[in-house]
């Protein structure tokens, strides 16, 4: 996530309405970097990543089971992310998973 050629981890916290970013160290361990709020009672069930706005930064998308929404956190400098922006998936929809892809074949996610 921070472009240092080491693996980083992003952890989905269903019960805490958050994501935790863990930055990879040189020795195979990880350092807790930042916690990102996914919305009040969002209960994020699954996440995926992709460059949604073509800025060459990874963005995060969450399926928010508790709030019937998806959340998008846009990638910023040095592996940080914007505050979540949520989009409704419909009352009672309880989204379980989310995926990204170029579904309309316009060369964009």
Explain what the structure shows:
The strands form two sheets. Strands 4-5-6-7 form a four-stranded antiparallel sheet, with no helix packed on it. A three-stranded antiparallel sheet has the order 1-2-3, with no helix packed on it. β4 and β5 form a beta hairpin. By secondary structure, it is an all-beta fold. The chain has strands spanning 9-13, 18-24, 30-37, 44-50, 59-64, 69-73, 85-88. Helix content is 0%, strand content 39%. It has one domain.
Key phrases:
mainly beta; four-stranded antiparallel β-sheet; three-stranded antiparallel β-sheet; FG-GAP; signal
Entry summary:
By secondary structure, this protein is mainly beta. The protein is built from no helices and seven strands. It has a four-stranded antiparallel sheet with strand order 4-5-6-7, with no helix packed on it. A three-stranded antiparallel sheet has the order 1-2-3, with no helix packed on it.
Please describe the topology of this protein.
Elements: E1 9-13, E2 18-24, E3 30-37, E4 44-50, E5 59-64, E6 69-73, E7 85-88
Antiparallel strand pairs: 1-2, 2-3, 4-5, 5-6, 6-7
InterPro entries: FG-GAP, Integrin_alpha_N
Organism: Rotaria socialis
Protein name: VCBS repeat-containing protein
